[in-house]
Backbone:
């Protein structure tokens, strides 16, 4: 997975989310040709998939962190 800032191939979660919001606004505003609308829709689908990848990675990291016994947990021997 890419770092927080993203790479040329994969933007960060925040970059993808912001661009996806812009795509939605442009599609909702209308006034685009069919070809422009299709291109934006396809870009939006790619951005949504990128966001989902980031979120799945975050979920996996949280699950791994929660599965590791931490020091000083309640009931842990000293």
Residues:
């Amino acid at each position: 997975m890419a770092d927080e800032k993203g790479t040329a191939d994969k933007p960060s979660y925040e970059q993808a989310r912001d661009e996806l919001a812009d795509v939605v606004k442009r599609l909702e505003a209308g006034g685009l040709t069919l070809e422009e609308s299709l291109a934006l829709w396809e870009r939006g689908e790619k951005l949504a998939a990128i966001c989902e990848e980031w979120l799945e990675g975050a979920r996996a990291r949280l699950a791994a962190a929660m599965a590791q016994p931490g020091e000083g947990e309640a009931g842990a021997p000293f």
About this structure: Residues 3 and 12 are 7 Å apart (CA to CA). Helices lie at 13-29, 34-67. The mean pLDDT is 87. The radius of gyration is 19 Å.
